[in-house]
Amino acid sequence: MIDKNLLEESQQAELANHRIRYDFLAGQLTRSGSDVEGIIRQLNGFQVAIPSWALGTGGTRFGRYGGGGEPRSLEEKIADVGLLHALNASSGAISLHIPWDIPADAAAIKALAADHGLVFDAVNSNTFQDQPNAPHSYKFGSLSHVNPDVRQQAIAHNKAVIDHGVSLGSKALTVWLADGSSHPGQNNFREALSRTRDALAEIYAYLPADWQLLIEYKPYEPYFYSMVIPDWGTSMLLASQLGPKALSLVDLGHHLPNTNIEQIVAVLMMQQKLGGFHFNDSKFGDDDLTVGSLKPFQLFLIFNELVDGMAATQNPAPAWMIDASHNLKDPMEDLLQSVEAIRTAYAQALIVDRVALGEAQQANDPVRAQQLLQDAFRTDVRPLLAESRLRMGAALDPLTTYRQLEVRRQLISQRGKNTRSTGL
Ligand SMILES: [Mn+2]
Fold first, then answer.
1. What is the CA(288)–ligand 1 centre distance, in A?
2. If we measure between CA atoms, which residue out of 276, 404, 288 comes closest to residue 335?
3. What is the per-residue DSSP string for 288-348?
4. Fewer CB within 10 Å, N or C, the chain?
């Protein structure tokens, strides 16, 4: 746990600098018509879930270089997310992956999370790996498999994941299917999708009344010729056929290069089918890199559509989660950077002059429209984010505090150098 006195002491010297920066920005934004207090309130309420598998070092199929002090149990993963939340006041939810993180005592785990101010976000099922002693293999698919016994095993697993989620207070199941084919002719596309829809319908029927089923899509990998749910259109088709509790989930890394993701967001929201987001960044494919590290403008454009859509459509509030892998960085530092990038894009989208943008669109004035977006994107909103954290008792600058307090060194001394977190 972060000692609040130490935290305050460590940033005492920075407070005066922050005040100057914040007052300047707040004055500027107020003069240009922004409701600064309203923006701070929206930032305060914005929580991004941390997945339980992102707290350890990731790897590639070539190797993995652990950084030490990784959580050894679900309890330690919750402690790590609690630490992030204490520093940034924006990581107040954890998303579990089953079977990597099955709670032995759900009530105790729920209480532990509550001690850290955390709730449980969507639970995630896994039919992309065979589990020890499972009677059937997913080598050739799970919900789309030609053998009904394999499909039933995958359906039963998803129902069990829902049960775990219910015991923790989760409200959604995220399904990412690794089903697909690597060779032309291997699968009958029509039949594979129709089997998947029927299997998802059985899972959907098992959902509690206040739950959602979030359907993730991905164009390739692990299979390289076809994926059964390759794109947002297929995901939305399934969600539409299943019913109102089924929605699409957008993972930023699950698109082919140069895909206009912000347009996908807009259309899904128009259909009230945007259920959730997995944030990361990428250069080539599903790279799972730090959010906003490569394409911050794309992230801003996506948030511009999200803010617009949340005000103008009946789309339910989406679930926000980071879905990244940390091969070189300390995972905690990477997650702090990612949450900051997400909040930056959100704050920038909140200061877009939407009335003027609407007028520019009506007047067919692309120059003015571009200027309005650039004005927001080029505004340094970091003092707003710091002010929001300060008011919630968190760190002015989470990353600097994390290093000043030598958190990783302490985790290594408590847990050891060679611990390995379950997950990626
Ligand atoms: Mn994902």
1. 9
2. 288
3. -BPTTSS-HHHHHHHHHHHHHHHHHS-PPPPEEEE----SSS-HHHHHHHHHHHHHHHHHH
4. N
Strands 226-227, 180-181: parallel, antiparallel or unpaired by DSSP?
A: antiparallel
* Cα 409 to averaged position of ligand 1 atoms, centre (Å): 30
Q: Which two tokens stand for residue 307?
A: 């803010």
Which one-letter DSSP state was computed for residue 130?
P
Q: Find, among 257, 222, 253, 226, the residue nearest to 61 by Cα.
A: 222
What is the reported pLDDT for 285? 93
| End-to-end C-alpha distance for the chain, whole angstroms | 25
In the predicted model, what is the mean pLDDT of the chain? 96
Q: Which residue from 176, 155, 154, 173 is spatially nearest to 164, judged by alpha carbons?
A: 173
Tens digit of each residue's pLDDT (9 = 90 or more) over 131-157: 999 999 999 999 999 999 999 999 999
Ligand 1 centroid–CA 373 distance in Å is: 28
Angle among Cα 198, 204, 209 to the nearest 5 degrees reads: 160
Most distant CA pair in the chain, distance: 67
330, 71 in Cβ contact below 8 A?
no
Bond preceding residue 99 cis, omega within 30 of 0: yes
In three-state secondary structure terms, 398 is: helix
Q: What average pLDDT score do residues 221-233 get? A: 98
Contact 50, 81 (CB under 8 A): yes
Q: What DSSP string describes 253-274?
A: TSS-TT--HHHHHHHHHHTT-E
Q: Is 39 in contact with 384 (CB distance < 8 Å)?
A: yes
3-state secondary structure 369-387: HHHHHHHHHCCCCHHHHHH
Look up residue 418 and give its amino acid. N
CA angle 285, 263, 340 (to 5 degrees): 65
